[in-house]
Amino acid sequence: xxxxxxxxxxxxxxxxxxxxxxxxxxxxxxxxxxxxxxxxxxxxxxxxxxxxxxxxxxxxxxxxxxxxxxxxxxxxxxxxxxxxxxxxxxxxxxxxxxxxxxxxxxxxxxxxxxxxxxxxxxxxxxxxxxxxxxxxxxxxxxxxxxxxxxxxxxxxxxxxxxxxxxxxxxxxxxxxxxxxxxxxxxxxxxxxxxxxxxxxxxxxxxxxxxxxxxxxxxxxxxxxxxxxxxxxxxxxxxxxxxxxxxxxxxxxxxxxxxxxxxxxxxxxxxxxxxxxxxxxxxxxxxxxxxxxxxxxxxxxxxxxxxxxxxxxxxxxxxxxx
Length: 321
Prior knowledge:
six-stranded parallel beta sheet; alpha/beta; Rossmann fold; 12 strands; 11 helices; 17% strand
């Protein structure tokens, strides 16, 4: 059975879908998966060895350039590629109008959430098969249940396995114990102050770790370099492709990160991972993993570097490292 997964964005949403893929592969030996995803996250989808063809969509860019002939050419090329693949089923795991629109391109039966379950109820109008999944479940479990209903098996929810592999052959990281600090995130109110990251790096050095920081834009670069200047033992990694950053994270000893997609990736790799949520609630979309934990600011009680490092050490002991 040839199935197309439509889960276009964001990075965290893509990562939350991997356990459902693993469930299906365990339950159905005759199944194969392709995936349609926003172009920046194609390298994340490629971390799962069972995913075949990765179709790149560029809805964000296309909306900004709707009048451009290139946009329409790319849209037609995507439609033609999806139809040429002759899928038996399209699984819209996102439940949005934009994902339903992309799913229709394939010209195959579409399965998705019903009106009461989809994030945008009107998306269900485009589906041939609709399934009810409670909305008060974590996003990972919701997706696992959707796949199970659409493909006909019972998921073992006592297991949480993302099935992704750490990419190899990319930039090396220091030997010994490495703590990657993921300070970058999309919203200013999610960002931990730079002094907190400096204090965290100092505490980690005192415990025998080499802190590593990354950056993807100039604001993040300023934070990374400030940490590196204040704590010279810190390795500041130059701006790198996403797949290289993924490799660095996957080969770390532990990760402390803000509310960002890369923190979800660290948890999915099974690393001791501490996520710091300042103004958002982890609720039904926070990082999940056997060795993942979330620290949340409550009122006038902020998350401190001491608390973050102590939690990371506890997770490290739990993993037996």
